[in-house]
Amino acid sequence: ALFMENARKGSIVSRANSIGSTSASSVPNTDDEDSDYHQEPYKESYKDRRRRAHTQAEQKRRDAIKKGYDDLQAIVPTCEQQDFSIGSQKLSKAIVLQKTIDYIQFLHKEKKKQEEEVSTLRKDVMALKIMKVNYEQIVKAHQDNPNEGKDQVSDEVKFNVFQGIMDSLFQSFNASISVTSFQELSACVFSWIEEHCKPQVLRDIVIGVLHQMKNQLY
């Protein structure tokens, strides 16, 4: 009986140890799980960095191009004008470029025209300077010889002679020239010069005027 009682107690202890071992093995290992949840932070790969840098560079390029077109539209006057063929639509890049090219060509023509005007004005200034020098020499010569030229024809007689010559020329000019248009005027002027301003014709006019005014000359 004692032997059987000890055997029963040993069996109970053995089963208890077995159950405890099984229960312990079924409990999750919290230390292992914590190590799995605390992973290292994600590291961006070289390919991702390169793709992101390329995207940023492309966006900057697009922004720069857009700003350039916006600046052109603000600078070029013809881009601000209403284009009835387009309506209220936004101008395309092709139209902005074409209008910019046209405006630049217009500016080149205006610059060339202004340069020609400046050149003409410089020639006029040079001619006026030459005339000024000549008149200063004439005035100086009269100041040095105040008695010279007293017996010459008066300015009034000179003007009358000039008026007589111009009146005679104007009569033929008025009869020959048409002012209907600039083209007709130009054609008639050249024709009148060739016909009525020949040296022999001018000579005869001057002689005729002088004969009419001989009483004033002598």
TrEMBL record:
The UniProt entry's coiled-coil ranges are: 104-131
* Biological process annotations from GO: positive regulation of transcription by RNA polymerase II
Q: What GO molecular function terms would the record report?
A: DNA-binding transcription factor activity, RNA polymerase II-specific; protein dimerization activity; RNA polymerase II cis-regulatory region sequence-specific DNA binding; RNA polymerase II-specific DNA-binding transcription factor binding
* Protein's cellular compartments: Cytoplasm; Nucleus
Alphabetically sorted, this entry's keywords are: Activator, Coiled coil, Cytoplasm, DNA-binding, Nucleus, Phosphoprotein, Repressor, Transcription, Transcription regulation
Biased segments, Basic and acidic residues type? 36-47, 55-64
Among InterPro entries, the record links this protein to: bHLH_dom, HLH_DNA-bd_sf, Max-like/E-box_TFs
Q: Where is the composition biased (Polar residues)?
A: 14-29
Residues forming the BHLH domain are: 49-107
Q: What does this protein do?
A: Transcription regulator. Forms a sequence-specific DNA-binding protein complex with MAD1, MAD4, MNT, WBSCR14 and MLXIP which recognizes the core sequence 5'-CACGTG-3'. The TCFL4-MAD1, TCFL4-MAD4, TCFL4-WBSCR14 complexes are transcriptional repressors. Plays a role in transcriptional activation of glycolytic target genes. Involved in glucose-responsive gene regulation.
Q: What is this protein called?
A: Max-like protein X
The gene is Mlx
